[in-house]
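We were asked to recover a plausible sequence for a given structure. The inputs and outputs are reproduced exactly as logged, with field labels preserved.

PROBLEM: sequence recovery
POSITIONS: 315
GIVEN STRUCTURE:
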C-alpha cells in the first residue's frame, strides 16, 4: 500500500499519458486526420460565432443556442486536442497533477454542457413548432440567458466533485494513464485507496445527464412529430421537418458515440482498448467538426450570411 504523508494524501507531481495503447507507432499518422478535424472545427465554429454576433437578424433563440453550442464545441475540442497532438507528434507525454485535474474538469464539464445545450435547442424547436404564437414570449432573451447560465452551472456542479474526490485520494507509484487525455475513470484507476465512491459518482453523473437529457429530447421531438403530422399541407409538413433535421443529425453525432463510449468503458471489457479510445476521440471531435457544417448547409439564413461574408472577403 502506498504511504500517505501526515499532511494529506500523496499526489504524483506528474502523470504520463500513453496516447492510444496498442497503436503507439501508428498514432503519429492518426494525428493528421485529427488535426484536420480540429482545424475545421475551430474555423467553422468561429465563423458561426462571428456571423451570429454581427447579424442582428439572427438574434433569435435558435441562433443564440447555436452560438452556445459553437462556443462549447470550441472549448471541448481545445481542452484535449492540443495536448493530444503533442503526445502523438512530439512524444511529450507528461502532464502535471493539477493540470490533469483541470483538463479532466474542462473535458467533462463541456461534455455535460453540450448535452444541456442540445436539450435547450430541442425545447426551442418544440415551442417554435407546437406553440409558434407564444414562442418569442416563452423564450425571451432573459429566459435564453437563464437557460444558458443553468447549463453552465449544471456542468460545474456535477463535474467539480469528481476533481475534489480525486484530489483527496492517495495515488500509487504507477502514474501511467492509458489514455490520450485525463479521462475520469482512467485517472481513478491510479488511486491506491478505495475508489467505489469515485466510480459510483462518475456513473451517477453519466446516467443522470444521459437519462434526463435524452428523456427531454425524445419527449420534445415526439410532440413535434405529432404536431407536424396534424398539418394538412404537405409543403408545410416538409418545412417543419426540415427545421428539425439539422438538430436530429447533431443529436445523433453526439449521443451515439457518447453512449457507446460510456457503456463500453464500464461493461465492454471484450472490446480492445484502442477501439474504445479511438471512439472517445471521435466523440470529442466529430460533433465540433460536423455541427457548423450541418447548420451552415441546412439552415437557409446561415447559408446566406456565410455566402455574403465570403463575398465581402473576396472583394
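RECOVERED SEQUENCE:
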Amino acid at each position: 500500500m502506498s504511504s500517505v504523508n501526515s499532511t494529506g494524501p500523496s499526489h504524483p507531481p506528474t502523470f504520463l499519458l500513453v496516447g492510444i495503447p496498442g497503436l503507439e507507432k501508428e498514432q503519429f499518422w492518426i494525428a493528421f486526420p485529427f488535426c484536420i478535424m480540429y482545424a475545421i472545427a475551430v474555423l467553422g465554429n468561429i465563423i458561426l460565432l462571428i456571423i451570429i454576433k454581427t447579424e442582428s437578424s439572427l438574434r433569435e433563440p435558435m441562433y443564440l443556442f447555436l452560438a452556445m453550442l459553437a462556443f462549447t464545441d470550441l472549448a471541448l475540442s481545445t481542452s484535449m486536442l492540443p495536448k493530444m497532438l503533442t503526445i502523438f507528434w512530439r512524444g511529450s507525454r507528461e502532464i502535471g497533477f493539477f493540470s490533469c485535474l483541470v483538463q479532466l474538469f474542462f473535458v467533462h464539464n463541456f461534455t455535460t454542457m453540450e448535452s444541456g445545450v442540445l436539450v435547450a435547442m430541442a425545447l426551442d424547436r418544440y415551442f417554435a413548432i407546437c406553440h409558434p404564437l407564444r414562442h418569442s414570449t416563452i423564450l425571451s432573451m432573459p429566459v435564453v440567458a437563464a437557460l444558458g447560465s443553468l447549463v453552465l452551472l449544471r456542468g460545474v456542479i456535477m463535474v467539480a466533485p469528481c476533481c475534489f474526490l480525486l484530489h483527496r485520494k492517495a495515488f500509487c507509484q504507477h502514474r501511467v494513464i492509458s489514455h490520450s487525455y485525463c479521462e475520469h475513470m482512467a485517472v481513478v484507476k491510479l488511486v491506491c485507496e478505495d475508489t467505489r465512491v469515485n466510480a459510483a459518482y462518475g456513473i451517477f453523473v453519466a446516467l443522470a445527464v444521459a437519462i434526463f437529457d435524452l428523456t427531454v429530447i425524445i419527449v420534445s421531438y415526439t410532440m413535434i412529430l405529432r404536431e407536424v403530422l396534424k398539418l394538412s399541407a404537405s409543403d408545410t409538413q416538409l418545412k417543419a421537418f426540415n427545421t428539425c433535421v439539422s438538430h436530429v443529425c447533431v443529436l445523433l453525432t453526439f449521443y451515439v458515440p457518447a453512449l457507446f463510449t460510456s457503456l463500453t468503458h464500464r461493461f465492454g471489457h471484450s472490446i480492445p482498448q484502442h477501439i474504445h479510445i479511438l471512439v472517445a476521440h471521435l466523440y470529442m471531435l466529430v460533433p465540433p467538426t460536423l455541427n457548423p457544417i450541418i447548420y451552415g448547409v441546412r439552415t437557409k439564413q446561415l447559408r446566406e450570411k456565410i455566402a455574403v461574408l465570403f463575398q465581402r472577403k473576396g472583394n
